[in-house]
Write a structure and sequence with these properties.
The complex is a heterodimer. By secondary structure, chain A is of the alpha/beta class. Chain A is built from 14 helices and 5 strands. Chain A folds into 2 domains: 28 residues; 262 residues, SGNH hydrolase (Rossmann fold, 3-Layer(aba) Sandwich), CATH 3.40.50.1110. Helices cover 52% and strands 6% of the residues of chain A. Chain B has 3 domains: 168 residues, no CATH class; 155 residues, no CATH class; 100 residues, no CATH class. Chain B is built from 18 helices and no strands. In chain B, helix 2 crosses helix 6, helix 3 packs across helix 6 and helix 9 packs across helix 14. Classes of the chains: A alpha/beta, B mainly alpha.
């Protein structure tokens, strides 16, 4: 077993040179990133829908004073027209739905911060969806959607947040691993030119969202209409649908159990909470009342992560409708499109719920009061 | 596992480092385990199919060697039939039944065979052919039967060439698996550079062009004239960069560990005839067909018509090897036709060249021959790439509708930056190809001062990383 696990001088030389070469490549890439790529890519270049909604809202920012911000659970579930009609009993409100498929933290946090900082958007209220980080599918790993927002701070925050979370170990490892890969992608500009080409080509193409969605529906699109437009109507008859309905029943019971035991939660993700407090403060500095919304979740670990976190948020900054004991209608088959989204009928129920809760917050905490008051 | 994947980026340095750290008598174990892991990264259970092939041909090799006369031949036939049976079931059964059913419907027979619901194991045709070459060489007495089951398994499974070749011969690779390969700095460097070059061709050129090729070939009715011509030209480059890129990574990664795999491509689009093209394109496969099919049928040492027949049939089989689809069969038949026609028309073409005065301008003649060969090969690629035969004929029909207005930046949509960039990189690649006529570019770079050398490496890696398309596109030849 002589020579076992001993590196020859030639091997050491090669590893040293490869390391040095990678270091040089890294330095040049950082330089290219800061001097070229950052300047030619706007903060909102994640995908076409993000760009469309951003361009629309910037162009029409004086027409709206409230924004819903989040994933498809916002995009497909909250109807601003209905919301405005309910809330208008108390105040004049013009809301816009800035929901984008898969726009989850920390990407949503990044985008929101930049909409305030770069675009100087000023709403009176923002209702931001609270959710857990998405699990990235392997096939989507190297797409720009996963790295365009990943600056140093966001990377550190994501890793810290995942490590400090109570999500199952495999998800934790997967999140840390995939985000680290994304960070390497970003640092070494891997595939960046192709993504920039795609983005600019997209800019020249027709928009992803039509004007009737942006203007008439105020950014809202019920999931069944979206699905019909994509020719997915047969979905209702599919095995996947039936399976997901079973999943909903399970999710409902998970929600029930978790909220029954809410007193027993004796921890929360400090890193995540710190970020939320930062966003509340940032919004407050711009005269915005930020309210986090928590839609129904489907996994036990999501409740474990989000319920204790939600408990730490001041009352005037949160609206929850994930508790199946209080909102059983959001877990009923007739109101659901799939396991993740309510249908058009469900969206009306959900919008009314949010509107009513929003009215209570506004009544109890008028905008002129200190926003973080409990 | 894909060579252009993150897993391979982790897998390769770990395996290579362990390989050189282990005493050489244990290295085959490491390589075999690594090869199993590499293969199982696709669909784990399919390793059992590979295992069956390995067991059959391992014992067949020994029994062939130990037998004489008809018994020897019988073992060979048993081995070939059983190995090909696996290939037939997984690759050709559904094609066969679909055609049988079509025939039954045509003749109004009330009989049909059901299709199998199976996925083709990655690289099945490649390792089947590598196994076959072993038993045939043992039968011919050119190779001793391998008694070490582990080494024989490694011969079939050696991960650099497991899923898409080069299809090795036992005489070239088996003895290398017994040799001690020390860490050779220059050799490792050369292997790594070859791998980087292969990756460049795959991710910077092939995967970029694939977007436009797929666009046209997946919607053949929507594209006409120059759009089809350019897409076909792009496909010719795409498939070359994809497959030769794979071969470079395979040869380079084997080279790093001290193994020499056979050359698979030799600037094929610079061939002056289709016959020369096949000496420079997928060399390991074309020589396999030459040695085991064409020569076995009598090759050219037969009557004229039988010779033409041998040539034509060899290429039809080669087409079928590529895929269970009539498009591949037509592609093979076209090449067979090109070759037969080239033999028949040789005197006529020589006369024509003399009359036109082209023999006095060999440079011009060479350019014309290269161009003509490239056009013929491109025409055949239409069948190779088209999703079905009717698509291929539709594309050919549409191709004739030439209009200058089709030549616009937006001919493939608004992402024209990407295909313009693709053309730029094709030019760079061809300049390097021309340069390599007189010697190896890697040797040329190695002789330059350190500053220039390192500068070139950094620029190359920056281009590879920044301009590559990293969406883990599979290599085209994996499907075969």
């Amino acid at each position: 077993m002589r020579n076992l696990f001993t590196f020859s001088s030639d091997m050491k030389k090669l590893y040293f040179k490869v390391g040095l070469l990678l270091l040089l490549v890294g330095v040049v890439n950082v330089f290219l990133s800061r001097s070229i790529y950052k300047k030619i890519t706007p903060f909102f270049w994640g995908n076409q829908a993000i760009t469309d909604k951003r361009n629309y809202i910037v162009k029409n920012k004086d027409d709206y004073n409230l924004m819903f911000f989040g994933s498809s659970k916002t995009f497909h579930q909250i109807d601003p027209v209905l919301f405005d009609s309910i809330v208008s009993q108390d105040m004049e409100v013009h809301s816009f739905n800035y929901g984008i498929q898969n726009l989850l933290p920390p990407e949503s946090f990044y985008l929101y911060e930049n909409l305030l900082k770069e675009d100087s958007l000023h709403f009176k209220y923002v209702l931001m969806e609270l959710n857990w980080f998405p699990n990235i599918k392997y096939k989507n790993l190297h797409t720009r959607r996963n790295f365009y927002w990943l600056n140093n701070d966001n990377y550190v925050y994501t890793i810290n947040s995942a490590i400090n979370s109570r999500i199952p170990l495999p998800y934790k490892v997967w999140t840390v691993g995939t985000r680290s890969v994304n960070y390497i992608d970003k640092t070494f500009n891997i595939g960046i030119v192709n993504e920039i080409f795609n983005y600019h080509a997209q800019e020249n193409d027709e928009t992803a969202l039509t004007l009737d969605v942006l203007k008439d529906n105020k950014g809202f699109l019920p999931v069944n209409r979206d699905s019909a437009a994509k020719g997915e109507n047969s979905y209702f008859l599919s095995e996947r649908y039936l399976k997901e309905i079973e999943e909903v029943k399970r999710a409902s019971s998970v929600s029930f159990a978790k909220y029954e035991d809410v007193e027993t939660f004796d921890y929360y993700n400090e890193v995540y909470l710190e970020k939320m407090n930062h966003l509340i403060k940032l919004s407050e500095d711009r005269g915005i009342h930020l309210i986090f919304t928590m839609p129904p979740q489907w996994k036990s670990y999501q409740y474990d992560e989000l319920i204790p976190l939600f408990e730490q948020i001041p009352e005037n900054h949160k609206i929850q409708f994930a508790d199946s004991r209080k909102y059983p209608e959001l877990f009923k088959k007739e109101n659901l499109f799939d396991a993740d989204h309510v249908n058009e009928q469900g969206s009306r129920i959900l919008t009314k719920l949010i509107a009513e809760k929003f009215r209570i917050i506004v009544k109890n905490y008028p905008h002129s009061q200190k926003l973080t008051q409990n | 596992m894909l060579f252009n994947s993150l897993q391979f980026l982790i897998f390769f340095p770990i395996v290579t480092t362990l390989y050189f750290l282990l005493p050489y008598k244990y290295r085959w174990i490491l390589l075999l385990a690594a090869s199993c892991f590499f293969y199982m990264a696709f669909i784990p259970v399919y390793i059992l199919i590979l295992a069956i092939t390995i067991i059959i041909d391992y014992f067949a090799g020994i029994w062939i060697e130990e037998s004489q006369g008809r018994k020897k031949k019988r073992w060979l036939i048993i081995s070939i039939v059983s190995t090909c049976l696996v290939l037939f079931i997984f690759k050709y059964f559904n094609f066969f039944t679909a055609n049988w059913d079509a025939l039954a419907t045509f003749f109004d027979w009330n009989y049909s065979i059901g299709a199998l619901s199976i996925i083709l194991p990655i690289g099945l045709s490649f390792h089947t052919f590598q196994s076959l070459s072993y038993v045939i060489e043992v039968y011919r007495g050119n190779q001793k039967a391998e008694r070490h089951f582990g080494i024989y398994s490694l011969y079939v499974m050696f991960y650099p060439q497991l899923v898409a070749g080069p299809i090795e011969r036992p005489q070239n690779i088996l003895h290398q698996l017994y040799e001690k390969h020390d860490f050779d700095y220059e050799r490792v460097k050369s292997g790594l550079l070859l791998m980087a070059w292969g990756l460049f061709k795959k991710v910077v050129i092939a995967d970029r062009l694939a977007v436009f090729v797929n666009q046209v070939y997946n919607s053949p009715a929507e594209y006409h004239g120059f759009e089809v011509i350019i897409a076909t030209f792009f496909f010719a480059i795409q498939i070359y960069c994809d497959f030769s890129g794979y071969s470079d990574i395979a040869i380079g990664s084997a080279k790093v560990m001290g193994y020499d795999l056979m050359k698979n491509f030799d600037r094929p689009y610079f061939s002056k005839s289709v016959s020369e093209f096949w000496k420079r394109w997928h060399i390991s496969l074309s020589t396999w067909f030459r040695d085991y099919v064409y020569i076995s049928m009598g090759g050219n040492r037969v009557g004229k018509w039988k010779w033409y027949y041998n040539l034509f049939i060899t290429f039809v089989i080669s087409g079928l090897w590529h895929g269970a689809n009539w498009t591949f069969i037509i592609w093979g038949a076209l090449h067979g036709f090109y070759l037969v026609f080239a033999i028949i028309s040789a005197p006529l073409r020589e006369n024509l060249n003399r009359i036109l005065g082209l023999t006095r301008t060999p440079g011009l003649l060479k350019v014309l021959q290269i161009t003509m060969t490239f056009l013929l090969v491109c025409f055949a690629w239409i069948f190779f790439r088209a999703n079905n035969v009717s698509d291929a004929f539709l594309l050919i029909e549409n191709m004739t509708e030439l209009k200058l207005s089709q030549l616009s930046l937006n001919m493939f949509g608004t992402n024209y930056y990407s295909w313009i960039m693709g053309i730029l990189f094709i030019l760079i690649m061809e300049i390097i190809h021309l340069f390599q006529r007189t010697g190896s570019i890697r040797d040329y770079i190695s002789q330059k001062p350190a500053l220039i050398r390192w500068g070139l490496y950094v620029v190359f890696l920056i281009v590879l990383l920044n301009f590559g398309v990293f969406n883990n596109e599979e290599f085209i030849y994996f499907q075969f």
